[in-house]
KCMB1 protein
Amino acid sequence: MLGKKLVTAQKRGETRALCLGLGMVACSMMMYFFIGITIVPFYTKSVWTTETVCKVLKVNIKDKVLCPNSEGSDDEDIFPYPCLQVWVNLTASGQEVMLYQTEDTLERNPKCSYVPDKSENSKEVKARIETIASNFKKYHTFLCYYDPGGMQTNVILSRLYPPKGLLFAFLWPTLMFTGGCLVIVLVKISQYVSVLSAWQ
């Protein structure tokens, strides 16, 4: 009687462990799919792939402009802010080009190097832009990214999804997938050992 209870409890434990392993594998597959349709397209679409040295030529803060200038934007997304323009000398080609914060900045407003968050108030935005401008004037040389193919003549300060960020995004679903497969393999080994013991 006690033996039957132990076997039943063992089978229940194996079933729960197997469900856990399958759940982990399923969740990792969903995470892979989500990353594949959100982050990967932005990474592959970016043409600013080569790092070089940029030297600041001039920094201007113009009157307030409306953001964004992209088509299909809602009226609630349009807000005025001072327009920061940073022009740099691209060391790789010697050209004078405009610097943008990220790829998204160029899409949102190609006239400005920096696009603030609309949740910030006007005083915070003005202070932040002035701080950024003073930093560019202080540090004349820095690393930036440009398009080696020449499709984009401008440069960006940082990529939204660099290679390290993409690898980090795939790290967690990979660990979950590996853990789920390990749990399933251990359950199958346990079942095989139990069957082998019962046969002997």
Summary: Residues 64 and 82 are 4 Å apart (CA to CA). The chain has four helices and five strands. The chain has two domains: 50-161, 162-195. The two ends are 20 Å apart (CA to CA).
